[in-house]
Amino acid sequence: MTNQKMFNVAVVGATGAVGEQILKLLEERNFPINQLKLLSSARSAGTKITFKGQELIVEEATPDSFKGIEIALFSAGGDVSKALASHAVAHGAVCIDNTNAFRMDPETPLIVPEVNIDKVSEHKGIIANPNCSTIQMVAALKPLSDRYGISRIIVSTYQAVSGAGSRAIDEMLRQTKEALDGNDINPDILPVGSLPVKHQIAFNVIPQIDKFQDNGYTLEEMKMVRETKKIMGDESIAVTATCVRVPVVYGHSESVYVEFKNEYDLEDVKRILSEAPGITLVDDPANQQYPLATDSAGKPDVFVGRLRRDLGSPLGLNMWIVSDNLLKGAAWNAVQIAEYIAIGQK
Amino acid sequence: MTNQKMFNVAVVGATGAVGEQILKLLEERNFPINQLKLLSSARSAGTKITFKGQELIVEEATPDSFKGIEIALFSAGGDVSKALASHAVAHGAVCIDNTNAFRMDPETPLIVPEVNIDKVSEHKGIIANPNCSTIQMVAALKPLSDRYGISRIIVSTYQAVSGAGSRAIDEMLRQTKEALDGNDINPDILPVGSLPVKHQIAFNVIPQIDKFQDNGYTLEEMKMVRETKKIMGDESIAVTATCVRVPVVYGHSESVYVEFKNEYDLEDVKRILSEAPGITLVDDPANQQYPLATDSAGKPDVFVGRLRRDLGSPLGLNMWIVSDNLLKGAAWNAVQIAEYIAIGQK
């Protein structure tokens, strides 16, 4: 590409699990960077990170950090985004925010490039990256929605521990070692770091991700409900979610029941998904091939399989959707948006 | 109890994971046993097992093993049941079969005591124990079905590895150790021992339990579909299942969407479940209390929680059902049936 404009880019939360993946992708994809600024909390400031052979020092993120910045990628938690994104916008930056801070703000587009990249242009400085479990589901459902319309979604998730951060991964590995050695397990972080009750994740599954809401659903479940409607641009879709943490390091799996508005053909569904951008169809029961969390790790795609007609409703389809929660579920989706802004490609 | 008749009992598959639990329960519950015969394959014959302080030697199961036997508990695989149950019946025994061999046979009652113990009397020598994942679900749904009627069930399971036998547990623990040590993992048994393709279960989830059927569902999924209708005595219930193996040792968890025929009250649902036999309600989101696989291990009850109104259908309820797959899901359900036959109690 000739005469490509180069951008001053800030990565907020550069030392975190998602920030690390964002930097890896910016480097691999040769993102048009003029100046790269790495920002973090005061605690992590001073960390050295190598980018394209150059050593960069992470600085503490402050309101003044964004002077001259044109694209800021935030993944340092909702509180940091709430405190700093407006300052970045005031300095003229476009913020791509990977937290829950602005997702449901009516002024903020909530973007999955394969689904609604056309909404990016409506931004007023901030573009929100959806929740990991939502992204992979809507990416897989959108091409089917375009063809048949969707009236209803019931999803049960099998979510990897990396979604709760690298300390949660450490905790799971430590607990697992303790369990194998026959020692006592003392849960410390999961299900929710800031809440008092802790549960074992090693050799267990925990039906709680994030805090409970008044309606009995967790915030993670309500994110899937609300974000799906907003991204699909259809408040009439009925969505129900059960979000469950499983002892997996990378890769969220989802058992999804979807009910279409119109009759569908299963072979057509397979063809549509096999041709859809960002989707890889892995659906070969005869050879025991279907998406697996371990196979998805490190890959940008959303993997779809176990496609079969519902046994109750003629309009119902069951499917199994898997993707790396740190990539398409976070860093890769954010970098896709940044690339669209920078060079107009999805 | 005075003048309790004492029974000659055979346990077929006495050295297996379920057989071991059956013997433990017969001992703990002081089952009225006159003579106890332990049977197995030729390979395990000769094994010594202590029952109530007495050492018994496991014998190879043959058609002649059942002479004088009045109650035979089978859990040695479908082929063994198919080969030997008719001989046991011919010798006058009532067989309680924990395999898939006779479950869908119209002549064979399929019994979950809390649901349909009244059907036991229809037996012609064989009573079938349902599949583990079905038992815990119908035990929890039956009291709600009695009150509101059920039109539809959509279930996604999180099934423990012990359901695939003790060799599968060994494999998971070995793989987990290999993964923690950073070594290569060479899957050997799961998802299905007799099929060629193997997948890693350590830090992974596998959306296949048992073989695929022509309709794209696995046999485990179709067991849940067919057995639920038969046990509930209602072929009109629409049932769809997605069965998934998770790296848990004991305790199946299930995310269940149920649609009632009539309007329901959530507080009534909780009251009905809290009063239902064999059910323990664990549903306190404010204190992060819900059923967990690790908590269910070693306990006979079915644990139910995460009760919440569906966000799509006013007749829909979402719930989380957990039970020890070797106890209520297998050994305990079989011993409950045996007790009903022996002493007329549930």
Name some characteristics of this structure:
homodimer; 346 residues; alpha/beta; Rossmann fold; Dihydrodipicolinate Reductase, domain 2; 6-stranded parallel sheet; 6-stranded mixed sheet; 14 strands; 22% strand; globular; diaminopimelate biosynthesis (chains A, B); NAD binding (chains A, B); Asp_semialdehyde_DH (chains A, B); aspartate-semialdehyde dehydrogenase activity (chains A, B)
In terms of DSSP E residues, the strand content of chain A is: 15-25%
The oligomeric state is homodimer
Got a strand count of chain A? 14
- Individual helix count of chain A: 9
Looking at the overall shape, the CATH architecture of the largest domain in chain A is 2-Layer Sandwich
Rg of chain A, Cα atoms, Å? 20 Å
Task: Report low-confidence residues of chain A grouped into runs of 5 or more.
Answer: none
Overall SS class of chain A: alpha/beta
CATH superfamily of the largest domain in chain A: Dihydrodipicolinate Reductase, domain 2
Helix content of chain A: 25-40%
How do the helices and strands follow one another from N- to C-terminus of chain A?
EHEEEEEHEHEHEHHEEHEHEEH
Indicate the CATH class of the largest domain in chain A. Alpha Beta
Strand arrangement within the widest β-sheet of chain A reads 5-2-1-6-7-8
Largest interface: A-B, 60 and 60 residues
Distance between the terminal alpha carbons of chain A, to the nearest Å? 15 Å
Average pLDDT confidence of chain A is 97
